[in-house]
Please model this.
Amino acid sequence: MRMNKLLQAMILVAVAATTTAASAATTLSKGDQAIIAGMAQANMAEVAAGKMALEKSQNAEVKKFAQMMIDDHSKALDSVTEVAKAKEVTLPTDVDAPHKAMAMRLSKLSGDAFDKAYMKEAGVADHTKVRAKLKKDETAAKDADVKALAAKMLPTVEGHLQMAKAAPVTK
Model:
């Protein structure tokens, strides 16, 4: 009987220690969870907009930019997903309302009107917002991995912004 109680106590201590260690290793603040979710949505939106541009645009420069958005933001989304998985954060499966509205606006356009709107909205405006958000996230994040993720994504987003601004179709 005494051995049974001792065994039960040891099992409870082991379970409690394992649960506490796992929680401590993966728990993120609500703010860091929101940062990761926002990163995921921004990357999903850029991939979706890029795919739309590949289908709708007839402009080689716009298509080249769109393919770069798909490639780079897919890689970035993979990085976000990797951190989220390690930190046990459930990511959204769809883009947020502002990105849905942008997609709706773009879907109604064609030709030069589409190209200009895509480059201005998904290229310049969205990358301007994301760049500012990543800079803020890099300092606001509490978790070192979340900070590193923001820092890693920032140069790519800045490069996209400069390309979008320089594109003749944006002018």
The longest helix spans residues 111-140. The chain is about 85% helix and 0% strand. Confidence is low (pLDDT under 50) at residues 16-25.
